[in-house]
Request: fold
Amino acid sequence: MIKENDVSRSLHEQLRLLISETETGERLPSEPKLAVELGVSRASLREAMRTFETRGLLQRKQGVGTFVIHPTQVFDTSLENLNSLETIADQLGLEVSMGDLKVSHCYVDSELSKTLELPENEEILRVSRVILAENRPVAYLEDNLPIDIISEEEVKQDFTGSVLDMLIRRDDIPLASSKCEISAIGAPHDIAKALDIQRHDPLLVFSSLLFSTRGRIIDSSFTYFLPGYFHFHIVRRVGDQITPVTIGGKQLSDLR
Reply:
């Protein structure tokens, strides 16, 4: 009797070979046809293909089909230092550009009020944009800033994709550090549409708070990364000693 794990491994290996032999941008056979060719159920095939989607090697397009992707530009970077995608790309010799940009005035809801430590219904500036590599969307960024930090006019006049870089270039707001939470999610509808993927496709999300040296929250940002184009790593200290980060007289762990 063939074990289920053996069938799964064989299916993954067949898919791996098929993807490796298919040119970037080419469409795979339809799901029913491919399931017959590989001798598996559509449910098993769909589950296996999801694995390769997570790795960034396949992209499904609703009503069109599944396409092979072989990223040649990979953002391989550590997380010890806070840098913009543009800075990382420049360091790695990669080319990126900004896609759709939306700058709007919003009002703080109850959740964002707690995050930014601002009163509810206070006006803030929201900067949302898509970052492109190899002429396709690879990340979606959203920054939420107090209205006195940066103006809509500044963004429209001097913006290439990074709010962080804009703030670093200024000398009136000394920046201290950032607290970041990392999670994996299924893409919500609006993010999926912006990144040209399907709803619930896997994404890596960085939810970050940027602090000034006085402990003020300058920016609440969300960065959605498409798998396959980003490899993040971090150097971990051996043992249980922790060096606290202090901002405005408070340890960072005490601020949120």
Summary: The radius of gyration is 21 Å.
